[in-house]
Amino acid sequence: MNVFYTLYCRALHLGLKTVSPLLPYRAPEATDYGEVARSLAEGGYGRVLLVTGKRVRGHGLLEPLLSALEEAGISAEIFDDVPANPTVSCVEAALSLYRNANCDCVAAVGGGSPMDCAKGVCARIASPKKPLVKMRGALRVKGKVPPLLAVPTTAGSGSEATAAAVFTDEKTHDKFAVFSFRIVPKFVVLDPALTSSLPPQATAETGMDALTHAVEAYIGRATTKYSRARAAEAAKNIFAALPAAYADGNGLEAREKMARAAFAAGEAFTISYVGYVHALAHALGGAYDLPHGRLCAVLLVPVLRAYGKKARKKLARLAVLCGFCEKNMPRAEAAELFLKETEKLCRAVGIPEKISIEENDIPALVRHAAREANPLYPVPKILGKKDLAQILHEVQLKKGD
Predict the structure, then answer these.
(1) Which residues are bridge partners to 164 per DSSP?
(2) Least CB-packed of 12, 91, 145, 247 within 10 Å?
(3) 343-378 burial by CB neighbour count: b if 16+ within 10 A, else e?
(4) CATH class of 32-189
(5) Residue 11, burial from CB neighbour count under 10 angstroms (0-12, 13-18, 19+)
(6) How far apart (Å, rounded) are the C-alpha atoms in residues 112 and 202?
(7) Would you call 29 exposed, middle or buried from its count of C-beta atoms within 10 A (0-12, 13-18, 19+)?
(8) CA 341 from chain center: how many Å?
(9) Is 3.40.50.2300 the CATH number for 3-22+198-395?
């Protein structure tokens, strides 16, 4: 990595750390179905675009919200054609329905994909003359957005608390992020019962996505006291609750802990950003259409090891805060213990150690990840393209493995 570019990145990260406490982040108001419906009605809103997926709709998970809206005199227009990785055309289709049905507010029920699609709709409403791809990056959404309600049916993406949304451009197969405080949901309903129908594999993958948010937010170089506290709280609860939620979908105590952990992790990384785990996962997700949480889980420990000594102090702190060791354990041992416990958690919930990656794709994957992460993400150690390629080779499933 060029020394001058490294200095440039670090200067930007210092600026981010300085302004992080001043950013206009507004945490969503956590509420229940009846209260949010009444709040919308009292605000003069009468028709909501409800963005979801066919599986969520088919399992009847919309009914609690639809009943509350109906009782408050609010009608709903349902868009349920959101793919696993939301696309630009998906956002445009939902936006067309919003306009044609004369909706005045937006709700999302589902995992990160419906919530990101709903955020994309809000961004396009705020900036109607600007294509979604032109809002790529930070703070490019202008104008007023309609109220957005998020009801997560997974405990992972944290999208219900974040200012970020990720989309795939079908024309280029490129995955890109839009970041704006304007698209943070105004309301959130955390209903652990909605996650009980989530299959074990999806429970594991979304839970590891939340853990990745927490860890990357905690070890970054643009944290605040609040974001570190929320990240540590999330990590501790995920280690404690994810195995139980994976083993028993109907265990609502574990499900509630996971819902609150994902929400806390979402708050943390909205303030403090993520790192190379997400950059590489986005590149791989765009290329192979694999679940984002699975990719994060596979990449998490290899990336943390690549940071080396630069992440050791904070990983050691996390080991203590998660209850893995006492404060007097040597820093290197505590950090290594955290990595071992993370690997142990991955194996306990069925996460594979490796994934299939085409060798010829690695240069393009590395370029995509490097372009996303550098210079914006305030990572513990700035990695070059050779470092990123090495990580991909480490998790690459080869013939005979």
Answers:
(1) 179
(2) 247
(3) eebbeebebeeebebeeeebeebbebbbebbbebbb
(4) alpha beta
(5) exposed
(6) 12
(7) middle
(8) 22
(9) no
Identity at 156, one-letter amino acid code: G
Contact present, 106 and 147 (Cβ < 8 Å): yes
Handedness of CA 165, 170, 176, 180 (dihedral sign): negative
Residue 187: both structure tokens together: 């309301």
State the angle between helix axes of 276-288 and 292-307 in degrees (0 to 180), rounded to the nearest 10.
140
Q: β-pairing, 148-152 with 47-51?
A: unpaired
| Extents of the domains making up the chain | 3-22+198-395, 32-189
Angle at which helices 200-219 and 312-321 pack, to 10 degrees?
Answer: 120
In angstroms, the Cα distances linking 21 to 218, 376, 377, 381 are 15, 17, 17, 22
Q: Which amino acid is at 346?
A: C
| Residue 221, CA distances (Å) to 164, 294, 338, 381 in order | 19, 25, 19, 9
3-class secondary-structure state, position 347: helix
* H or E element, residue 76: strand 75-79
Identify the burial level of 400 via C-beta atoms within 10 angstroms of its C-beta, where 0-12 means exposed, 13-18 middle and 19 or more buried.
Answer: exposed
Question: Which residues, in sequence order, are bridge partners of residue 177?
Answer: 166
Residue with tokens 């990260």: 13
